[in-house]
Amino acid sequence: MTPNERAGQRTTGAGPALVTGAGTGIGAAIAQRLAARGQDLVLVARDAARLDAVAGQARREHGVEVLTVPLDLSLPDCPARLAQQLKEADVTVDLLVNNAGAAVTGAVGGTDPARLRASVDLNAAAVAELSALFLPAMLARGRGGIVNIASTAAYAPAPYNAAYAASKAFVLSFTRALWHETRGTGVRVVAVSPGAIETPMNPGPGRGKRLPEQVADTVMAALRGDGPAVVDGRAYGLQAFVFSRVLPSRTAARITGSFFRKAAESRQG
Ligand SMILES: NC(=O)c1ccc[n+]([C@@H]2O[C@H](COP(=O)([O-])OP(=O)(O)OC[C@H]3O[C@@H](n4cnc5c(N)ncnc54)[C@H](OP(=O)(O)O)[C@@H]3O)[C@@H](O)[C@H]2O)c1
């Protein structure tokens, strides 16, 4: 029985949710929240063992069907291969959560160009391609959703985290545009921007830091809402507003640059 056949027997009537970057952090938390509402899952990331651990918890605690697909989504052919693999398995994705992401901090002039390129391919290109791959079937059914995880870094240029912030600005702009294109179709499209969240990407507690489970709750609320973009947490919502709408771009970049330069230096020890 495919995840879709099982899903049809559930009260939600929903097909599986595809969550990228579901092995740790925010993606793993979103996967558990979706499982708790009875949604079957397709989980994607590179590390198969971590995906299996998340899948095991979802099956054990919520009794859902979970398919794991270990893939490197920064590679050019992988989003299309994933869509083909799911088609062959007769799996129709009802909700796409583009969460996988990577940050390459430090000055662009001192960064490995290939690493920088791979991060942009993952954060931006894969998000656009996966959306284009899975949206047509959702439109045909008049039902479904796409949640793209951006960042508060999307709201201002960020020296010493330049490509990351720019790729998240792409996600935010792309999602806002897609929201317009899909209005009235029955497909819910929304960008969710977390601030600082305690995950393997951003480890350790810190002032104002939130938890992956709080972002997952924001994602679930965003799915019930109707706007194009949501920031996780009130303080980060205010920060995004100030950095994008109040401060001149140069001032915003000076502040974010000072923050990310210190963060990059402390990471280098
Ligand atoms: N933590 C924060 O402070 C914060 C703030 C704002 C936005 N975000 C965004 O939130 C999302 C989740 O981040 P997180 O904080 O939860 O970080 P995380 O715990 O490091 O999770 C990132 C996930 O993406 C997967 N991933 C990384 N590279 C991949 C690739 N090439 N192909 C497929 N999967 C890949 C990782 O698994 P593998 O390594 O096994 O592939 C992991 O499951 C990202 O888009 C991030 O930019 C995070």
List the helices and strands and how they pair.
Layout: H1 3-8, E1 17-20, H2 25-36, E2 41-45, H3 48-62, E3 66-70, H4 78-88, E4 95-98, H5 113-141, E5 144-149, H6 162-182, E6 187-193, H7 212-224, E7 229-231, H8 234-246, H9 249-268
Parallel strand pairs: 1-2, 1-4, 2-3, 4-5, 5-6, 6-7
Helix pairs in contact: 2-3, 2-7, 5-6
Bound molecules: NADP nicotinamide-adenine-dinucleotide phosphate.
NADP nicotinamide-adenine-dinucleotide phosphate binds at residues 20-27, 45-47, 50, 72-74, 99-102, 122, 149, 151, 194, 196-197, 199-202, 212.
Structure description:
This protein has 269 residues and is of the alpha/beta class. The chain has a single domain (3-268), classed as Rossmann fold (3-Layer(aba) Sandwich). 52% of the residues lie in helices and 13% in strands. The protein has nine helices and seven strands. It has a seven-stranded parallel β-sheet, with helices on both faces. Helix 6 (162-182) links the parallel strand 5 (144-149) and strand 6 (187-193). Helix 2 packs parallel to helix 3 and helix 2 (25-36) packs across helix 7. The N and C termini lie far apart (51 Å). The relative contact order is 0.12. Bound molecules: NADP nicotinamide-adenine-dinucleotide phosphate. The site of NADP nicotinamide-adenine-dinucleotide phosphate has 30 residues, from helix 2. NADP nicotinamide-adenine-dinucleotide phosphate binds next to helix 2.
CATH architecture annotation name: 3-Layer(aba) Sandwich
Morphology: globular
CATH C-level class is: Alpha Beta
CATH topology name? Rossmann fold
| Low-pLDDT sequence parts | 1-13
- With strands numbered from the N-terminus, the spatial order across the biggest sheet is 3-2-1-4-5-6-7
Question: Which percent bin holds the helix content?
Answer: 40-55%
> What is the quaternary state of this protein?
single chain
